[in-house]
């Protein structure tokens, strides 16, 4: 059975994540307030950011940077800056 959340990113009711994919308070906030669809969009952007900036997930600074980008994108609607990537216009 899928659960529905009001997605803060998409500003609509949508299917929620099946389980908490991110640890801690931020993970709980994402689980409670972000849809599967929005998290999927973020995961694509996250991959582009990791590749472009050559982030190393073993490095605390890189993880912190990525977490800040994730929160800004999911909850504040801020597009991460990815060189050569132009977000599709609405």
UniProtKB/TrEMBL annotation:
GO biological process: cellular response to oxidative stress
One GO MF term attached to the UniProt entry: iron ion binding
Keyword vocabulary terms for this entry: Iron
GO cellular component, as recorded: cytosol
Pfam families reported in the protein's UniProt record: Iron_traffic
Gene3D superfamilies named among the record's database cross-references: Fe(II) trafficking protein YggX (1.10.3880.10)
Family listed: Belongs to the Fe(2+)-trafficking protein family.
Record-linked PANTHER family: FE(2+)-TRAFFICKING PROTEIN-RELATED (PTHR36965)
Function: Could be a mediator in iron transactions between iron acquisition and iron-requiring processes, such as synthesis and/or repair of Fe-S clusters in biosynthetic enzymes. Necessary to maintain high levels of aconitase under oxidative stress.
Entry-linked HAMAP family: Fe_traffic_YggX
Name the UniProt record assigns to this protein: Probable Fe(2+)-trafficking protein
Protein source organism: Agaribacter marinus
Organism placement in taxonomy: Bacteria, Pseudomonadati, Pseudomonadota, Gammaproteobacteria, Alteromonadales
């Amino acid at each position: 059975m899928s659960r529905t959340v009001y997605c803060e990113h998409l500003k609509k009711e949508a299917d929620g994540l099946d389980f908490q994919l991110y640890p801690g308070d931020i993970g709980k906030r994402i689980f409670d307030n972000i849809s599967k669809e929005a998290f999927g969009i973020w995961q694509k952007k996250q991959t582009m950011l990791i590749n472009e900036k050559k982030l190393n997930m073993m490095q605390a600074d890189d993880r912190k940077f990525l977490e800040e980008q994730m929160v800004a994108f999911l909850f504040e609607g801020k597009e991460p800056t990815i060189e050569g990537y132009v977000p599709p216009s609405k």
